[in-house]
Amino acid sequence: MDQPTADTTSDRHHDSHAHHAKKASRKRWLIWLILIVIILLIGFAFFHPTKHSHKTNNLAGNVQPVAVTTAHIDDMPVVLQLLGTVVPITNVTITPRVNGHILDVYYQEGQYVHKGDLLELIDPRPYEATLAQYRGTLAADRAQLEKARVDNARYQRLIRQNSTSAMTARDQEFTVQQLEGTVQFDEANVRNAELNVMYCHILAPVDGRVGIRALDKGNYVTAGQSGGLAILTQMQPISVIFTLPQNQIGTVADQLREAGALTVDAWNSDNTQKIASGTVKALDSQIDTATGTVRLRGIFSNEDLHLFPNEFVNAHLLVKTLHNVLILPGEALQTGPEGPFVYRVEPDMTVKDIAVKVGNTDTQNAVILSGIKAGDRVVTDGVSHLRPGQKVSIPNDKHS
């Protein structure tokens, strides 16, 4: 009995020792794990700022060449670019006013003619014969009227002497009045016949260019004939009709009222070349409800005849000029999530992004209302790789 008891006690002691050893081993592994995590955290904290610092040093060390401009104070014209069409001030369809054959044509197609020039001649002989007939009738009736007046004067003397009846004298007065009416009728016939003879001579009503004629010599024409004989277009001066959006009417109307006239330039259809300069003096009387625009007419002297009827042009309307404003070229403006900004070159030759407020603009420049001041240097070229704080160089820079 004693021996088994001793063995059992020994086994229990051995198991207890093994349990304690295993527990101690777990503690050691846990301590090592904690130490490893701490080392990793220290390493991350040590190397991360070094990497960030290296990136910052690279940004500052990487010098980007750029082109710059200097913000300056100047005058800025406010110009509206509008679509327009060249429209003649006078465009006349030459239409016959009498019937007859065309005897002759006195112009070449496309010729520039002057007011009063003879263009075509319609056979006047029938109208000249009618005129002669009416003049003969007028002469005969005037003679009868003169005789009737002499007789009437004689009857008036006789009636005062009681040598004729009052009725006879009165009848003679009526004869005079009747013949006076006849003479007036004859005179009207003569004037009408004279007009018909004059209408046989087709004259240019204005200075201008004659287009392609519809009928040649020998054709028979009728008064008011559809299509006419040719079209005469006034070329000097000439006008451009262009449309103005209704939200800009107030500004333009104010300037017209103040200045009396505005300057307008006509540019070609692709807006690359100026053709002519003119003036605008008035707006149309109403807005086109279909387009929400109002028409304006610009008048151009067209001395070189470069403006041609129905030609499409771009109208540059000078509304006003802003004086003493801060100006930058348009290429200096950048667009970001919060609006327009510029890269300003700092004294240490780094760039800083500056938000700006932009006013009026044109095809080249912009008015800067706030954000920078006159004398600030702003990047215009080489911005694609720029970041705030970036070092830059300016080739041929006198300030460097």
UniProtKB/TrEMBL annotation:
Signal peptide: none
Domain (Multidrug resistance protein MdtA-like C-terminal permuted SH3) ranges: 324-383
KW Transmembrane helix (keyword) present: yes
Entries under Pfam families matching the protein: Beta-barrel_RND, BSH_RND, HH_MFP_RND, RND-MFP_C
Keywords: Cell inner membrane, Cell membrane, Membrane, Transmembrane, Transmembrane helix, Transport
Location (main, coarse): membrane
InterPro entries the UniProt entry points to: MdtA-like_b-barrel, MdtA-like_BSH, MdtA-like_C, MdtA-like_HH, RND_pump_MFP
Multidrug resistance protein MdtA-like beta-barrel domain location: 237-320
GO molecular function (one): efflux transmembrane transporter activity
Domain named Multidrug resistance protein MdtA-like alpha-helical hairpin: residues: 130-199
Transmembrane listed as a keyword: yes
Subcellular location: Cell membrane
Family per similarity comment: Belongs to the membrane fusion protein (MFP) (TC 8.A.1) family.
PANTHER family: MULTIDRUG RESISTANCE PROTEIN MDTA
Name recorded for this polypeptide: Efflux RND transporter periplasmic adaptor subunit
Protein's organism: Swingsia samuiensis
Lineage: Bacteria, Pseudomonadati, Pseudomonadota, Alphaproteobacteria, Acetobacterales
